[in-house]
Automatic annotation (TrEMBL):
Its cofactor is pyridoxal 5'-phosphate. Gene3D superfamilies: Aspartate Aminotransferase, domain 1, Type I PLP-dependent aspartate aminotransferase-like (Major domain). One of its GO terms (biological process) is amino acid metabolic process. It comes from Amborella trichopoda. Its EC number is 2.6.1.1. It comes from the Eukaryota. Homodimer. Residues 30-396 form the Aminotransferase class I/classII large domain. GO terms for molecular function: L-aspartate:2-oxoglutarate aminotransferase activity; pyridoxal phosphate binding. This is Aspartate aminotransferase.
Length: 401
């Protein structure tokens, strides 16, 4: 008899489990719209040209594989803070930013969560309802209590702004407020710039600490600066805040696990202390981060020619998703005779569309139409091609009605 009799079978992950089920399906019409990973119009994974060029540079230079310091590659940490905040942001010169390279967005969120658990043991984190499924796992595993604030309004398929504001107001002073910097996952609905100002007002009044998750910088608008404007607004108000960054999507570095945690502090002294404690937390967890992705980012951001090439590749990716979004809307509007207004699809931002399909309808999408998606009704438009939009529209209309 095994010593592991007491170990029960864990359920499949609600997002990554979808890819496993997709692989096992032999139907030729199958579509994987579960995970948010960019595909070409031929539905193939895509390695950016600038990434290949940066990797060639690394080979030419004969870069070695020595350990990085606990906080990561210095050139990466500088580049990532500049990309987020703008190179001329005064907080950088004032050395008020504690930046530590993380294991992509997830690892950076997890490290920040460990920091919150250690230094703010009485604080809770407010997360949007709904949010990316892994947020709850991350805070649960880090033993950080959380509760939800209203965000999505199914009636308008838009933002429940009043609900959001009143829930943030009702939370105990000094709570952490997790915000998606841009391209909210899974809804694709972002606050307007006027709404961001009000969110910042309320967070300041309540002495809350903003915690931005920035996983799609460049993927919402196609512009790196515009997509960082929410974070920069809060920084310009002199607030202290956390930001977790990821290069999975915007540089297509999914498997390289490259991202960062940045803590913007009100003094350089505080930033130095915060950074020292982040390093102390990282050391027993994974010792130091991987170098490959960090060098790619540092090479791309640090070289003006590669940087501008990256921007145009990103605009191209964001543009392909926008054209698929438009085509899907057109197909749905033409084919659906029920009179339903599908324009919400056009208003959503980023890689995803939140279709409003419930669990049973999402099951129909998969079981009958071989369309794989998460059970909250989210589809990844990054995994859709123009030529598959019509098929998808048929599947959605059939599942809705
Ligand atoms: N935050 C959000 C909102 C995300 O959608 C994702 C990716 N799906 C991440 C963080 C982190 O992804 P990764 O760990 O690959 O950077």
């Amino acid at each position: 008899v095994s010593r592991f009799e007491g170990v029960t079978m864990a359920p499949p992950d609600p997002i990554l489990g979808v890819s496993e089920a997709f692989k096992a399906d032999t139907n030729s019409m199958k579509l994987n719209l579960g995970v948010g990973a960019y595909r070409t119009e031929e539905l193939q994974p895509y390695v950016l040209n600038v990434v290949k060029k940066a990797e060639n540079l690394m080979l030419e230079r004969g870069d070695n594989k020595e350990y990085l310091p606990i906080e990561g590659l210095a050139a990466f940490n500088r580049a990532t803070a500049e990309l987020l905040l703008g190179a001329d942001n005064p907080v950088i010169k004032q050395e008020r930013v504690a930046t530590v390279q993380g294991l992509s967005g997830t690892g950076s969120l997890r490290l920040a969560a460990a920091f919150i658990q250690r230094y703010f043991p009485d604080a809770k984190v407010l997360i949007s309802s709904p949010t990316w499924g892994n947020h709850k796992n991350i805070f649960n595993d880090a033993r950080v209590p959380w509760s939800e604030y209203r965000y999505y309004d199914p009636k308008t398929v838009g933002l429940d702004f009043d609900g959001m504001i009143s829930d943030i107001k009702a939370a105990p002073n000094g709570s952490f407020v997790l915000l998606h910097g841009c391209a909210h996952n899974p809804t694709g609905i972002d606050p307007t710039s006027e709404q961001w100002e009000i969110i910042a007002d309320v967070i300041q009044e309540k002495n809350h600490i903003p915690f931005f998750d920035v996983a799609y910088q460049g993927f919402a608008s196609g512009s790196l600066d515009e997509d960082a404007s929410s974070v920069r607004l809060f920084v310009s108000r002199g607030m202290e805040l956390f930001v977790a960054q990821s290069y999975s999507k915007n540089l297509g570095l999914y498997a390289e696990r490259i991202g960062a945690v940045n803590v913007i502090c009100s003094s350089s002294d505080a930033a130095a202390r915060v950074k020292s404690q982040l390093k102390r937390l990282a050391r027993p967890m994974y010792s130091n981060p991987p170098v490959h992705g960090a060098r790619i980012v540092a090479n791309v951001v640090g070289d003006p020619a590669l940087f501008s090439e990256w921007k145009s590749e990103m605009e191209f990716m964001a543009g392909r998703i926008k054209s698929v979004r438009k085509r899907l809307f057109e197909n749905l509007s033409q084919k659906d005779k029920s009179g339903k207004d599908w324009s919400f699809i056009l208003k959503q931002i980023g890689m995803f569309s939140f279709t409003g399909l419930n669990k049973a309808q999402s099951d129909n999408m998969t079981n009958k139409w071989h369309v794989y998606m998460t059970k909250d009704g989210r589809i990844s438009l990054a995994g859709l091609s123009l030529s598959k939009c019509e098929y998808l529209a048929d599947a959605i209309i059939d599942s809705y009605h």
